[in-house]
Amino acid sequence: MPFSPKVREEALVRSKRCCCVCQEFAGRATNIHHIEPDAGGGSDEIENAIVLCLRCHSEAGHYNAAHPIGNKYSPSELLRHRDDWWQWCKSNPATIPPKYPIQITPVSLTLHPGKWTSKTEVIVSNTSSTPWFQVWIKATILAEEPLGQLIDLKPCIAEHPLSVTCGGMTVSGEVLGIFGSDIEGRSAYLVRLFRLDPGASCAFLITLREASEGPAHPIELGFSVVEFSDEPPQVLEQSAGGKIAMVLKLPVEGFTVESIGIEVLQINPA
Ligand SMILES: [Zn+2]
Predict the structure, then answer these.
(1) Beta strand spans in 22-142 (E)
(2) How far away, in angstroms, is 142 Cα from ligand 1 center?
(3) Do 130 and 156 lie in a common domain?
(4) Domain co-membership, 219 together with 108
(5) Cβ(150)–Cβ(216) below 8 Å
(6) Domain that holds residue 112
(7) Ligand 1 mean position to 20 CA, how many Å?
(8) Domain boundary at 67, 91, 115, which?
(9) CA of 54 to the centre of ligand 1 (A)
(10) Domain total of the chain
(11) Tens-digit pLDDT profile for residues 22-36
């Protein structure tokens, strides 16, 4: 029997959609494989499930005992790979897996009082060879209390591909950042990178909002990837009343939006 949707989802979440053998991120190209073959009486429960990429799955599934070449993947070996990887994922919930296609360095940054200047020290990279991704980054102010919007966070990108023709003009722009508080009540920013090409990197420009010395204590910012996909992004739309609108689906649950930064780059007469 195949695994139930609930077991499949649980296996994918525990694995962070990475292959449990080679630990590469596999995205949609994942297989939920029976460790003990179902034909041999293996169960359809989570204990018998392992997430494999297509390459490892074909190797694990197509060993011909009549013509043995190389070494067979035994159920006990698969179980050890699976348990090791799930243990790593469980022990490192906030860490980006080493072979994940989107990497952020550093994952945290301390802004010191009296030294507030624009910084471009945080880099987001697409380490895959294909495809491009739309990426949502979350920057959380790691403080006990919500601190409000202290900084502006702006991706340093040249392309601003969202545009709409409206009232005889073409307006181009991009969402720069959404500020608010997350489900745990911490001040946070969500920033969307419209398109990050294979092998490309994007730096963030971090600037203090007010010309001041900043807060009295160091502020720590934590960065994480909250979503990435190769789906086409939402575009600007013109409503019947002539207003330009963009429908944004936030990539995280329970986020309270306080402000949205949008940069309008060009307004061209048609
Ligand atoms: Zn693999």
Answers:
(1) 30-34, 49-53, 102-105, 108-111, 119-126, 133-141
(2) 35
(3) yes
(4) yes
(5) no
(6) 102-269
(7) 7
(8) 91
(9) 7
(10) 2
(11) 998 888 889 999 999
